[in-house]
Amino acid sequence: MANSNSSEQPAWQRNPVFEFFASLKLAVVLLAVIIIAAIAGTIYESSFDAKVARAYVYGAPWFNIWLVLLGANLACSALSRWPWRKHHLAFLITHLGIITLLIGSLIGRIWGIEGTITLFKGEAPTNRLLVDQRQLRVHDVDGIVKGYPAEFLHHPPSPPHPRDLGRLASGARLQIVDYAPAIEAKLNPTPVSKGGASALAEATAGRPALHFTVATAMMNQHLDGWLLADDPQHGNFSMGLANIELKRGTATSVAAGVPPAQPTRLPPQPEEVELEESIFAFSKAPDEPIGHVRKGGSTGAKVRLVAPVNGNKGYVVVSSGEKETIFDVAENLGRDVPIENTPFTLRIENYWPDFRIENGKPSSLSDQPNNPAVLVTIRGKGVPVSEVETNPHGRGKELNATGGPPAMPAPGVETPNRLTLFIADDGAITYELASRKNGKSKGKVALNEPLPTGWADWQLVVDKTMPSAQPHMDFKPVKSEQASASSSGSADLPDGVRVRVQQNGETFEQWVPAGWQVTVPTSPNQTMIAYGWKTVSLPIGLELLNFEVKRNEGSDSPAGFKSTLNVVTADGQTATGTCWMNHPFSFPGSWWHTWTGLTYKISQASWNPENLNQSSVQILRDPGWLLKWIGSLLVVIGVFMMFYLQPYRKQTEGEPITLNAPKEKDQIIAGEAVAEITR
């Protein structure tokens, strides 16, 4: 507490700077801003995720400075009571607790580690920790891998305001000139020259390649791409309902006389199940509906759209076995109506008079019935009907009895619509085509001549070929409206940065998506640049010995999963431990390592249901945790003493209260706010 006579105070207590940092007004402002920031951080975390809250609030430089100012205010407030007396004890303990809490938080922020490691059973121990922060990694010409922070949730770089990263060992200047939340990668192969030094490259890396376009006027879609023959990554092009593949050689003969397949049902079910199926039907392609099973299985119903006449919206015809039911589109749009003599109901979800696909979404080009289409949903209890084999002759009457429209194939299941292109050594192109509607066929493909596929009105054109090529990827940002409208969404596309390297008067610019590495032609050697998660090398390595999944009794749903790990150190120490959900283990496990925070807490983070030899674990190391606990305990003790122990609740009798003395109780609330922020 300050002396009653200001002239008796030490000179350092009367210093204007000290009085400013010890003032109650500063404490109120600091606490008010921290409370508002905590509210904003909570809203950001609930609306987005913890990374956004950390970027804008908890991990922002201004927030760290604010906490340092609060610590300085608390320390000066405590020193302003000098010389301390008995009734100051609760006040001092509380302030000491908050300061200790802030110091522990600062230590954890600077020297703490948190990230994940994905492990595979049978692989050697790894120590590469992935941290939830973006980083640009440069493998420089001097052999050193350099990392640059590249978090651009706010204030991303732009061409007028690039992020300058300085000079590399080669003397080149490196800059980040742009950022995109979604980057699309597209194959653009480069030819492999023949002869000389490139002969070996041609023999080992060169593959025949061709460029194609496939388009449909009915859906207003136009797709194109390159294919590399027999390439596991770039030899296939999937359209969902159809697949295009390129191989070396010549098309073989197609077996003739394949009998049409008959509708079959799944093995008998113990009871009927709930079925739900959505079907697109087109009046201009009555034999090409597209079905998508939403629940249980296919209903087996065949849906056709009869073209509108005299200004109406047409009719939906539902065939189930030998019986047909007709529904007026205009009268039943948006209604659930029963299908006669079946346990199912039909709902016409939407109608498009002039159907097109725009930015990945169905839409209508006009109000005129130029290309009518409907989306219907059929629901009810029944026995699911299996998908049948292709009718090789494509006769419409038999096709109506095939047990429903073609459905999107399940993951890992081959689509019935396939086109295999073959390219011979002399450049001749042949094909083998499988169509659900027209069966199988084969023939030759001429450059720039359309090939009808039998998949609605899709036609394919081959316009370019390369006798020998090697893969090369072009990257470009995807506009936000295109990403949001795409069927897979922008979540499947990585973000990326555009880097600029300037050396000897030449400038090289390249987009670098997350998870990719590009090569920059610098001199005297090339420079490799990668963008992705920040990696940290740990002094310990982890090896996955076993991964177990417990199932709920009577089902395949997981009840829990557990990883058995082997931990190794550089000096040869090893330890084995297990972790499962909410049950981590620590290494080193000695008590003094644990109490000082010099231990790694290993927790089960996630798993891959498709690969039970894979496990992801979280690694946490917080050297400031003990100070946080001690600080929290001191705050609780100080508040208890101040409010419940009489000797520490009031000032000594006869000693007046000075106006410039900070009020103890008014600053106690800092404990609660800071404890929540720095926990």
Description:
The structure is a single chain. The protein is α+β, with helices and mostly antiparallel strands and 679 residues long. It contains twelve helices and 36 strands. Strands 2, 3, 30, 31, 32 and 33 form a six-stranded antiparallel β-sheet that branches. Strands 7, 8, 9, 25 and 26 form a five-stranded antiparallel β-sheet that branches. Helix 5 runs parallel beside helix 12 and helix 11 runs antiparallel to helix 12. The radius of gyration is 35 Å and the shape is extended. The two termini are 30 Å apart.
Could you give the topology of this structure?
Layout: H1 16-21, H2 24-47, H3 50-58, H4 61-79, H5 89-111, E1 113-120, E2 126-139, E3 145-149, E4 163-167, E5 173-180, E6 183-187, E7 190-191, H6 199-204, E8 207-216, E9 221-228, E10 236-238, E11 242-248, E12 273-282, E13 285-295, E14 302-306, E15 315-320, E16 323-328, H7 329-332, E17 336-338, E18 344-352, E19 355-358, E20 361-364, E21 373-382, H8 396-399, E22 417-423, E23 429-435, E24 439-445, E25 451-452, E26 459-470, E27 473-477, H9 480-485, E28 496-503, E29 506-513, E30 516-520, E31 527-551, E32 558-569, E33 574-580, E34 585-587, H10 591-596, E35 600-607, E36 614-621, H11 625-644, H12 664-677
Parallel strand pairs: 11-22
Antiparallel strand pairs: 1-36, 2-3, 2-31, 4-5, 5-28, 6-27, 7-26, 8-9, 8-26, 10-11, 12-13, 12-21, 14-15, 15-16, 17-18, 18-21, 19-20, 22-23, 23-24, 25-26, 28-29, 30-31, 31-32, 32-33, 34-35, 35-36
Helix pairs in contact: 2-3, 2-4, 2-12, 4-5, 5-11, 5-12, 11-12
